[in-house]
Design goal:
Keywords: Signal. By secondary structure, the chain is of the alpha/beta class. It has 14 helices and 14 strands.
């Protein structure tokens, strides 16, 4: 009896209760409410609440938006699932590289999958993340129509979601302010027309990404508004949207078709939703031998476009850098904050930067 009393003197009751709760959560594959933990553990509700909040603060437990709790560390690294847009898209690969480096530096385990610019593949990857039991999903995919289904798959499993560039239900948005980056691209095009063409413009093309939905399309809306803020005399009927799908070949094809139909037009401004589209527009421009009468501004500042802008007289006169190297650290920080149960803004914007051809040429 004396020996049993001595052993109990060395026990810490609240620590024992905390371990009971941790073991209970470890046996659950789905989030569980405070009330359910209280009923099953027979620990006072006040103690359960304080223990859970401590676990959340220390990163062992995540609290879902509905208030339920799930174990995220046993203890082990937090495990994030990241589905990249496409390994063939330079900006997507830059984001993936930044995220890999940030995860390694932060001790977060990162499970990477490629959405291949395809809705069915994105759905497959989302289901795999659920099966693997990741603690948080970062989704980067282009198809707006599949976003609700992807979000449903992930939300039903009680897994928090961060969506890059394309809003998803139940997700925290991360990316650029699409309208603003478009507006600044439009201002660049207007400045070119003012300085080089004495404000004379025959057509303005917006190379859109229709399947990405209205938010990404607002890059082109913003470009048109930015252009007309400096050139208000440009008529609405001169502003034409073409669906380049954010891809080089498609963009080259639709711009080539437009140029063939308007062979006598001298001055054309092109705002591209992505630099990959901008390169497609460049290809069509070169093929038509119209480099002197077309000006192009892209988005993302991928290496190939930066190199192109170093060339004197290149039709690509600028691009808006989305600062892909900053995505990784900020996404990891945002994910950890969410898993620790803290409130985050619904929209988390990255900083962007205007890069012009003259800036690139001066840096040589």
């Amino acid at each position: 009896m004396a020996q049993q009393k001595i052993k109990r003197l060395y026990l810490i009751p609240i620590l024992s209760k905390a371990l009971d709760i941790l073991e209970l959560l470890e046996g659950e594959r789905r989030p569980i409410t405070l009330e359910a933990i209280y009923q099953r553990s027979h620990i006072s509700k006040t103690s359960v609440y304080r223990i859970l909040k401590t676990f959340v603060h220390r990163g062992y437990v995540a609290q879902s938006p509905d208030g339920s709790y799930r174990l995220v560390s046993r203890p082990k690294k937090m495990r994030f699932g990241f589905a990249g847009q496409s390994a063939e898209m330079p900006f997507s690969e830059a984001v993936t590289s930044s995220l890999r480096a940030a995860a390694a530096a932060s001790g977060v385990e990162l499970m990477v999958r490629d959405n291949r610019y395809d809705a069915d593949t994105a759905v497959k990857n989302a289901k795999e993340f659920v099966t693997e039991g990741v603690d948080l999903v970062i989704e980067f995919q282009i198809e707006e129509h599949v976003a609700p289904y992807l979000a449903h798959i992930i939300s039903r499993a009680g897994i928090p979601l961060i969506a890059i560039d394309i809003p998803h239900p139940h997700a925290s948005y991360f990316g650029v302010d699409n309208f603003q980056v478009g507006f600044e691209a439009g201002e660049l095009l207007a400045q070119h027309a003012i300085s080089k063409w004495k404000k004379k413009v025959d057509w303005v093309l917006g190379l859109d990404v229709a399947e990405a939905g209205s938010l990404v399309q607002s890059r082109i809306t913003g470009a048109f508004e930015g252009l007309r803020s400096l050139l208000p005399e440009i008529a609405e009927e001169l502003l034409i949207r073409l669906d380049g799908r954010g891809m080089r070949e498609t963009s080259a094809r639709v711009v080539s078709e437009f140029l063939r139909r308007h062979a006598r037009s001298d001055r054309i401004l092109i705002a591209a939703a992505t630099d990959t589209s901008a390169l497609g527009a460049l290809q069509a421009t070169v093929d038509a031998q119209r480099e002197k009468t077309i000006a192009i501004v892209g988005q993302d500042c991928i290496p190939e476009v930066l190199e192109e802008m170093k060339k004197p007289q290149s039709p690509i006169v600028g691009s808006i850098s989305h600062e892909a190297h900053t995505y990784g650290p900020r996404l990891i920080q945002l994910g950890v904050t969410i898993l620790r149960g803290h409130t985050v803004p619904p929209y988390n914007y990255v900083q962007h930067r205007v890069v012009t051809a003259s800036m690139m040429q001066e840096s040589e």
